[in-house]
Amino acid sequence: MSQFSEHIRSLREKRKxxxxxxxxxxxxxxxxxxxLEKGERQARREQVLLLAELFNVDKEELLSLWxxxxxxxxxxxxxxxxxxxxxxxxxxxNKIDYNNKKKTK
Amino acid sequence: MSQFSEHIRSLREKRKxxxxxxxxxxxxxxxxxxxLEKGERQARREQVLLLAELFNVDKEELLSLWxxxxxxxxxxxxxxxxxxxxxxxxxxxNKIDYNNKKKTK
DNA sequence: TGTTGTCTTGTCAAACTATGACAAAAATAC
DNA sequence: GTATTTTTGTCATAGTTTGACAAGACAACA
Lengths: 105, 105
Hints:
2 copies of one chain form a homodimer. By secondary structure, chain A is an all-alpha fold. The first copy, chain A, has a single domain (3-104), classed as lambda repressor-like DNA-binding domains (434 Repressor (Amino-terminal Domain)), CATH 1.10.260. In chain A, 73% of the residues lie in helices and 0% in strands. The first copy, chain A, has helices spanning 3-14, 19-26, 30-37, 45-55, 59-75, 84-104. In chain A, helix 2 packs across helix 3. Chain A is globular and about 40 Å long. The relative contact order of chain A is 0.11. The A-B interface holds A 3, 45, 60-61, 63-65, 67-72, 74-75, 77-80, 82-93, 95-96, 99-100, 103 and B 3, 45, 60-61, 63-65, 67-72, 74-75, 77-80, 82-93, 95-96, 99-100, 103. Chain A binds a DNA duplex through helix 3.
């Protein structure tokens, strides 16, 4: 149901790892991993980094996917009708750009 | 500090309304409004709509600004280094587009 | 069929976060 | 000075999320 969760699952399956091993890596139980992989629980930042290490994938890429889901979560109620959600994305983008400009200055 | 909060304040000042009147409209006290206008509290969706009515501005526009802040909140910790935040925006945008496409289908 | 290992689901307390109320201080106006 | 508006600090309450546990489902296979 969520890109992030599906991605995690697919990474695990490609590497033929059991949920119990992922659980050990995150110091959680398999029930939690199962829910992560079905999008019923959200990972926390720290866990995303551990997963990236475990699966040996780029941390920033995994973080982007994870964050993207969180962003979508904020918008999903509005995303139905029209431009509100997309406008909101623009607002956020402008703030990011503005902040980065300030810093390089 | 936040676009939304500054906007609210400026709307109120343009119309020469007191915080007490805004508070009445939202059924809150002035302390709360003060914090809203300084970005120390986040409005809830319902309150945004009330504000749009009170100030007689477009609801969708105000919602976009408000949502944009919420989105930025999710990203602000990452927005420092590099592309993670902007990538996350793209991920979210794709999900929105994908969902809209599904619906019109 | 029974056993073993893996994954899933339901439930819940504890941890965490946010809201909005109140009181008291600060600022502004008169 | 007083009166009014705005700000700040503190806090109980409500609301949400996490992760632990127990029990169930499913698959492989002897």
